[in-house]
Amino acid sequence: MSGWVVVAGLGPGDEMLVTPEVTAAVDQATDIVGYIPYVARIAPREGLTLHASDNRVELDRARHALEMARDGKRVVIVSSGDPGVFAMASALFEAYEAHPEFAATEIRILPGITAMLAAAAAAGAPLGHDFCAINLSDNLKPFELVEHRLRHAARGDFAMAFYNPRSKSRPHQFTRVLEVLREECEPERLILFARAVSTPEQRITTVTLAEATPEMADMRTVVLVGNSTTRRVGPWVYTPRGVAP
Ligand SMILES: C[S@@+](CC[C@H](N)C(=O)[O-])C[C@H]1O[C@@H](n2cnc3c(N)ncnc32)[C@H](O)[C@@H]1O
User: Fold this and answer.
1) What's the 103 CA to ligand 1 centre distance in angstroms?
2) Positive or negative CA dihedral for 97, 99, 103, 109?
3) Average pLDDT of every residue of the chain
4) Quick one: CA dihedral 75, 102, 81, 22, positive or negative?
5) How far is the CA of 199 from the centre of ligand 1 (A)?
6) Confidence (pLDDT) at 1
7) Which residues have CB under 6 Å of ligand 1?
8) pLDDT tens digits, residue range 172-196?
9) Which residues sit opposite 221 in a β-bridge?
10) CA 195 – CA 197 distance, rounded (Å)
């Protein structure tokens, strides 16, 4: 039997948000590969081998998946949210590009619901006009680039979604992010801290930029920053669809 590699997004947490396409791929798999908490979401069964690994080993994990597919296995690499959003799909293609011996491998990328969209839906429609997503981690890029993109997104009046906002090893960086926003935006700008979206621990806190503190974010939080027209209506937050000429 010929092998394949699927990179699948498991969504933000709620099993109801896993697509039927992803469930079907997992059902057909012989091997599941991924970061420990994501592999833990897959129910063990006979004939299925779970390969859980730590984070920061994405390229090794991708090469391992390609090797197993070459040997006839049906491999699903699991990501949270969507696999193309700061996740394993790009890592797989980096490994694929670096190893021409895997050129004939059958590869499919199966989308999932990314954290910012689940958070936006839970809050209303804060990303209803033009927006961008920025990974605040400096693991794979210098923090100066984060700051540069953030400042220009704010000047362009984009709404923004921040992934990986604040870890224990770099708490000062989110402090700097708030400083840059305060230099570029008005104090009334709305910010949403959406933690553990679609899980029983979900908590969404909406504050103004003036009220925001670094401690409101952690690595289970996606932060949404409205544009200059984003507003509250009842319990909801939304961004109007248009901008007057
Ligand atoms: C390595 S990125 C993976 C993103 C994922 N591929 C996605 O599309 O959502 C991890 C970051 O995603 C965000 N995140 C993932 N799941 C989340 C959830 N259920 N609630 C809030 N934020 C989440 C957090 O910012 C976290 O630090």
Assistant:
1) 30
2) negative
3) 96
4) negative
5) 12
6) 65
7) 12-13, 79-82, 85-87, 114-115, 119, 163-165, 194-199, 219-222
8) 899 999 999 999 999 999 999 999 9
9) 195
10) 5
